[in-house]
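Researcher: I need the complex structure. Ligand is PBG. Inputs:
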Amino acid sequence: MRGLVREAGFTAGSLVLPMFVREGISEPAPIASMPGVYQHTIDSLKAAAREAVDAGVGGLMLFGVPADHDALGSAGVDPDGILNRGLRALKEAVGDEAVIIADLCLDEFTDHGHCGVLDVDGTVDNDATLEIYSAMAVEQARAGAHMLGLSGMMDGQVSACRTALDEAGFTSVSILAYSAKYASAYYGPFREAVDSQLKGDRRTYQMDVGNRTEGLREALLDIDEGADVVMVKPAGSYLDVLSDVAQASTVPVAAYQVSGEYAMIEAAAANGWLDRDRTIMESVTAITRAGATIICTYWATEIAKKVSRV
Ligand code: PBG
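Model: Output:
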C-alpha cells in the first residue's frame, strides 16, 4: 500500500555522479574525509565511469585536480589540462551512454583558490573571470562534454558561456547552472578532494545562508540567460529554496548533495550511530520530495544499483 501511494521517487537515470581526476598520480588516491571517494587516475576514472553507467547512472560530473596552480587558473583553459584530458577519457569510456558534465570553475586551478581571477585589491573580478569561463566553455565542449556545470557564481556566467558556445558552433552543448549556491560550510571535505588552495572564504560571490528569496531570484535570472538546468546547492539544508525553485522553474531542477552531507552520514554510520543505507535513501528521497528531478550525489553508483533503471 505504501509503495502504491508514495508521492516522491526517482530512478537511476536521475542520478549524477561527481568524480575527481588528478594529474600526476599512478594509483587512485582515497579522500580521507569522504570514505569511498577517490581522486582518480585517467584509467581508474574510466573504470569507475563504466561501473556507474552500467548501474544506470544518468550523468557524470567531472572535476579536475591539476599538478600546478597559477593566478589565472591557466590549467583550466589548457586543452591538455587534466580536466579536459579527463573529459576525453570519459567520452572514450562511456560515449553518449550518459551525460558527461564538465565542472566549469577556476577554483581547482588558481593558486589563491578562488573561483575567479582577482583584481588589484584581491577581490574576485567578475567580468574578467567571465572571459576565462568563456574560453573554458569552448575547450570543454571540444573535449566532449555534453553539458557544462557552471559552478563559479559569477553574475552573467550563463549568458557569457552560452554566447561563446554558440559562436564556436557548440549549439547543442547544454548548461547546468549552479544558480542558488550558498557560501556553505558543508563544502569542507570537497576542499580536500580538489586540493584547494583557498584562504579566506567565498562570500563576495556565493549566497548568504539566510536568504531564501534570493535563491529563487538567482534561478530565474539564470533561466532568462539560457540555463538548461538550474541547481540548488547544498541540498539537504536548503530544501525550502529547492522547493521554491522547483515550483517556479520552467527548466529541470537539480540539487547537489555535497561533500559535507556525504561525510556526515558516512562518519555517523561508521560509528554505528545511524543506519547507513536507510539514512542515505532518506536523504536522497527528501531531496526529490522537495522537487529536484536530477540529484548529484557521491552515492550515485551505489544507489543506482538498488533502484529501477528508467
Ligand atoms: C567550486 C565548487 C565547490 C563544490 C563544487 N564546486 C566548492 C566551493 O564552492 O567552495 C563543492 C562540492 C561539494 O562540497 O561536494 N567550484
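Model: Summary of the prediction. The chain is about 40% helix and 15% strand.
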